[in-house]
């Protein structure tokens, strides 16, 4: 189509060949539509005209619409990629920042301004270490005190630390682990065998994502004498399988005796495949002790692990000892080992007791069950002969009260936990008076009358109805989060009367458990401990499919 300019349209030559006068010229109207003038003499084609000349076919309305939609989709893709990039950058900030020097004992960022806060280092020491590029060898003041037995907490809800610029909340510590679910990593998840349910981390999927997990049970050296670890291993696998986690294997370990540690080290080397390894678990589950035992075992074959032993994470009974991810160069073949901050769970006893009472919650020696009523050569005490434990209350220190509402005459309760918590039994009608009088004295923690005055008491009461399915074995365990567990045995063999038919017993046992707010109470299948556990424990028959997918356990 010939390009028409404005000058051409106004030229007299472009008018029809008629004799026009000045009078009728003003009545002439041009039928040609005005043409838009663009730079470089380009004109937007008129899509409404029927003819566009001899060039390539002009785009139709449908072509235009398709182009617009394609442009929109392309813009969406670009925006999506920009958001992804921003999100990745944000996640990388949450990851271990090696540019910021941290205390090798607890992972807290080094600082010189607040002396009573984590990460504090004397200014002269800091400048000297910085000058010689040795900041990674610095231990903060708090860690030095912890290593000498001082109980200094730095996490909200776990008593002792008043706060400040370096105060850390439980949510802050959890946030430091949030990047794990987006990374390709190998997770070593730790659980305390004494507090199995309380330290399990039921929402571990939110932290680990789909990453594979090596499941490690710690402190098995504390289990009662005569315990068959074959039974305990099977019991742990059964409990773990119900959680539907991506578990590769289960290991029963002791950081104290190094039992099972070599198996974990071998599994890590097998499954690491160049990935970083993160030690994950709840607060005070024994992560730092486990890492020290792991490095000691690996040092026999890996010189990198031997070098890493020089600057090991600090160990302490204080929940929240580790305040930030600690990078450890433990593998000669590549990849890093990270000690992570413990996940603080508000439902454990450690969240409610004073910092000075925390050591009382951690068993130091092998557990020995304390049973009630006590069986002896002379039988049981007179007050239990006719009605058993019915109508009595049992206090487990100042932290737990068990009211026996309805049990069989030969029912026995066995308490497994730290020896420092004394157990007292009184008639239920006198239980309230006894608690108020003896709290802080006989019933500890809390220790001392001063702490007892600020104690809120046992605010939560949970009523339990435990069904007796097989009187020949314990009915269940009642686990107290952060403390231990109580085995409920419907018919104690040492108390059993000859005229009782075990096959005919099918009753419910009723108990009322009182604990501080917000401590949780779990009812679970009984853990097979001591010699008796191996006698009554029954292995479940597995299908072929279950045998294929079920993780193996090692000790």
UniProtKB/TrEMBL annotation:
Coiled-coil intervals, chain numbering: none
GO MF annotation, one: GTP binding
UniProt cross-references to CDD domains, sorted A to Z: YqeH
InterPro entries, sorted: G_CP_dom (IPR030378), GTP-bd (IPR006073), NOA1 (IPR044229), NOA1/YqeH-like_C (IPR048422), P-loop_NTPase (IPR027417)
Domain spans labelled CP-type G: 174-346
Protein name, UniProt field: CP-type G domain-containing protein
Species this chain originates from: Dipteronia sinensis
